[in-house]
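Quick question: what would this complex look like in 3D?
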Amino acid sequence: MADTLERVTKIIVDRLGVDEADVKLEASFKEDLGADSLDVVELVMELEDEFDMEISDEDAEKIATVGDAVNYIQNQQ
Amino acid sequence: MKAGILGVGRYIPEKVLTNHDLEKMVETSDEWIRTRTGIEERRIAADDVFSSHMAVAAAKNALEQAEVAAEDLDMILVATVTPDQSFPTVSCMIQEQLGAKKACAMDISAACAGFMYGVVTGKQFIESGTYKHVLVVGVEKLSSITDWEDRNTAVLFGDGAGAAVVGPVSDDRGILSFELGADGTGGQHLYLNEKRHTIMNGREVFKFAVRQMGESCVNVIEKAGLSKEDVDFLIPHQANIRIMEAARERLELPVEKMSKTVHKYGNTSAASIPISLVEELEAGKIKDGDVVVMVGFGGGLTWGAIAIRWGR
C-alpha cells in the first residue's frame, strides 16, 4: 500500500504540479487537484506505464480520486 | 542520391472562425477549447473553394520557392481525405492547372499522416534515380466533413493547404530517416460516418497519438544515428497542443523549438505539417543544416515521421 501510494503520489505531483500534501486518498482529481479530462487521461497513461498494466476506458472512467487509483492498481496486482 | 525539400508553400483561406463564433453555434466556451486543444481560431474555405483550388495555390508557392518549373515535375502526390470528388483526383486536377504535363499524378489517402506518406513516397522515386522533382501537397477542406452540431469535433478542424517540392540535394543535406506505420485495429476510433461527418473517440485517439508521436520521433532520431540533443526543431502534426506537448517532452526540447500553429488554424489534417514548415521558415526558426523532425498521426490509424537535415 505505502509503496503504491508513494509511486502514485509522485506521478500526480509531477503531472499536475500540486503539493504532495494535497494528494490525499480522498482527493478528487478534478475537484481538488485541478485536473481536467485530458489530465486524467494522461495520468492514467502514466500509471499504466509505471505499473506495467492496461487500464480499460471503462475502468479509467471510474477512477475519480487518488484512493480509487491506488485501490485499482492494488486489485490488479 | 539524397532526397530533400527544395521549396515549400501554403494557402490559408481568408475566413476566420473564432472560438467565440463557435460559442454561438454549439454549447462550448472559448476557455474550454483553449485549455483542451490550444485552438483559438481556424480558417474556413468559402463554399465554392475546394481542395484543388487550395492545392494549386500552395503548389505554385512551393514551385516558385524551389525554382522548379511546373513542366519539370515528374510526379504529383496529393494527400487529402477531402478531394473535390473521388475522381478525377485532386492531383490530376492540379496537374492540369499547373501545366505539369510530364508529371504522373495520384492522391494519397493516409488521413492526417498523409503528408508524411507523400514525402516518403517521393523520396523513394528521387533516391532510386527514377524521378527528379516530386510535388507533395497536403490539403484539406475539413469543414465539409465536420458535423457543426457536434461540440466534440466542431471545435477542432480547419481548412488549408501546404506543399513541398521534393528533389535531389547534396549528400550532407536531406531526409536522414523515416518511419511509416498503420494500425487498422484502431480504425474505429476516428472515421467518416455514413453522413460524411468525422467521428472521433477523443480519449482513445489522444492516448494513441501521445504514445505514437513520441515513439516515432525517437525512432527516426535513432535511425538517423542521432541523439535527442541533435534535434534543432520539431514539427508535429497540429492536432491538439496537449498531444504536441507530450511529443516535445519526450524529446526534451524547449518550447521555442517546437512549431505551433494550431492556435491559428486548428487541425488541418494533412496540411498542418507543411503549413507549419512554411511559417517556421518564414520566421527564421529553421536554418540551413538544422536537423528537423516532422511527425504526424491520423485516422486509419496511420502515422509517419521523418528526420531531415534542412537545406539543398
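Answer marked as accepted. The interface with chain A takes residues 35-36, 203-204, 206-207, 210-211, 242, 246 of chain B (CB under 8 Å).
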